[in-house]
Amino acid sequence: MLEKLGKAEKAHTLRVLEYIDKDRDLDSSLKAELASFALVHDIGKAITKPSLAFKVAKVLFRLSSDAHCIAGCRAVWHLTHDKKLALRILKHHVKPNPDPFLDAFQKYDDKA
Length: 112
Ligand SMILES: [Fe+2]
Description:
It is built from seven helices and no strands. The protein is an all-alpha fold. It has one domain (about 1-110). Fe (ii) ion binds next to loops.
């Protein structure tokens, strides 16, 4: 499914992974968990395939991008039945985020 991500989404995922990897303040188990999540957090974009026009409008008008969160949550739930992972994908853009893991993850996602 990851291979269906667009070039920009793959590059974003790699940048998130790079920021996580370079953070020396993270303990190894949290780093591993964040890196695993980074690989799948935007998997819904493989389904929604946002157009270039939408990406531009999203930045210009600060539009919400919830569609890929919902699509990713559904896909991961159907493939794995991992409720925790599916819900994290669903809520990975919620701010402020009550889940400390997602709150930490957003730091890398927003930077990338
Ligand atoms: Fe996202």
